[in-house]
Fold this protein.
Amino acid sequence: MKYIIAVIQPDRLDDVLRLLTEREIHLVTVVNVLGRGRQKGISEVYRSHKEAGSLLKKVKLEIAVNEAFVKPAIEAITEGARTGQIGDGKIFVLDLPECIRIRTGESGGIAIG
């Protein structure tokens, strides 16, 4: 089991969700977040002083998958989020040692869905 975290541009969310659905990955948590990466946010000039970077609006997707769905999930996120411009985002893949479905008490890969 793996836990995939992706941080992407908000305007790419619909494409990513569509591509995930096409690959039969339906269980996704989406959170609006603020952050900055290499672009270091946005610099603004205020009263002739350059103000350091603001945080940019991003979307964070969290997806728990069984091993067979790791590669399709990464491909869907990459394909849907890529514009070729700085700030497209990042994907993090973590080991998921346990998953428990609260309603039934099932655990492991079957609990993911």
Q: What stands out?
A: Residues 2-42+51-112 form a domain with the Alpha-Beta Plaits fold (CATH 3.30.70.120). Helices lie at 13-22, 70-81, 109-112. The mean pLDDT is 90.
